[in-house]
Amino acid sequence: MPVARFMALALGHPDHGYYISRDPLGTDFTTSPEISQMFGELIGAWVADVWHQIGSPVSFTLVELGPGRATLMADALRAASGQPGFAKAARIQMVETSPVLTRVQQAALAPVTQKYSYTEPEWLSSVDQLADGPLIVIANEFFDALPIRQFVKTDDGWREHCVVEADGALAFAPAPAPLPDGLMLTQALRDAPSGTIAELCPAATAITTELCQRIANTSGAALIIDYGYTRSAAGDTLQAMRGGEFVPVLSDPGSADITAHVDFQALGECAGPGTTAHPPTTQGQFLLQLGLAQRAQMLAQTASPEQATAIDAAVHRLTDDDAMGTLFKVLAITAGRIEPAGF
Ligand code: SAH
User: Nearest 5°: CA angle at 74, between 73 and 78?
Assistant: First the structure.
């Protein structure tokens, strides 16, 4: 089967899919909102700023794609709710396919949505069910979980990269026949040496294109944060994690988180007329520009010495070049004249 099918089944199979059956956060991997409340708070401030820039509409949809434990959304709502009119205007829609994580998210959001009198949040399984009207979308470590197609260059052209069974085990192999002429023939790839791997994520571009069309029609913005690369390039980025360690991608499918790095150039190119893709920045620069250091200082003032050390460690983990600061990129796609904070 093609790599894309393998990845879709390993993550989303109704009985055995990785995300369908568990809450993997904190055991197999950790994400920025789980590292510190400051991450979600700063994104909440970012959202509130966009909402002001689009004219503080009395009704808009606040969307999170792949919300994990909803820690980001809960922290963001706490931070944004101080803006007069924000809580009344926001209709919260969470796009999630995992039943286990949906329950975790419902429990995590209830206290904060009740406290600030938000309308009941809604859960959807796909972006085509989003409400009409102005839209502000957040996605942290969502796009890396979408199935990628892989291609391998052979002596007679590019072939789909597949997962096959060989001698009782799973292995990668090129498809029996080359792709039709014209596919994978961008200039950069035309002369790639035999054995080169290239990737495309059709699900990511389809979702981003849909969001861009809605934003172009009704205003708003999307904020996409993930590990990835700013210029499209060949390379094998498929990886699997279990228990915080990298493991072979084909070992025990369904038991590990399989992801690929995100091609931010490809996502930015989905921005059509009426939308602007702002050149991606790094997570480190983005958070520092939004005021991470100041927020950390504020929190440290009322913290115990141990808490202050933890706050400092979180700042470094989120922003240092040898931690998450550079590998993680941030892309904002906005309606026409909006100038997103942090870029
Ligand atoms: N954003 C969270 C979680 C990241 S893990 C955080 O930063 O902590 C990836 C999330 O995307 C999980 O919630 C997973 O269930 C969800 N997910 C994976 N594939 C999805 C799909 N095709 N549609 C919707 N949600 C998906």
Answer: 115
Residue with the nearest Cα to atom 5 of ligand 1?
68
Q: Which atom of ligand 1 is nearest to the CA of 29?
A: 5
Separation of 158 CA from ligand 1 center, angstroms? 31
What is the pTM (predicted TM-score) of this model?
0.97
Rounded distance between C-alpha atoms, residue 304 and residue 307, angstroms? 5
- How many angstroms does the Cα of residue 141 sit away from the middle of ligand 1? 7
CA gap 319, 316 in Å, rounded = 5
If one residue of 19, 100, 109, 226 were mutated to test the ligand 1 pocket, choosing by the most ligand atoms within 8 A of its CB, it would be 19
Q: Which residues line ligand 1 (CB under 6 A)?
A: 19, 25, 31, 33-34, 66-68, 72, 95-98, 101, 140-142, 145-146
Q: Which structure tokens are listed for 32?
A: 């920025």
pLDDT in tens, 126-176: 999 999 999 999 999 999 999 999 999 999 889 999 999 999 999 999 999
CA–centroid distance, residue 283 to ligand 1 (Å):
19
User: Could you tell me if 288 and 39 are in contact, meaning their C-beta atoms sit under 8 angstroms apart?
Assistant: no
Summarize pLDDT for 71-102 with one digit per residue, the tens. 999 999 999 999 999 999 999 999 999 999 99
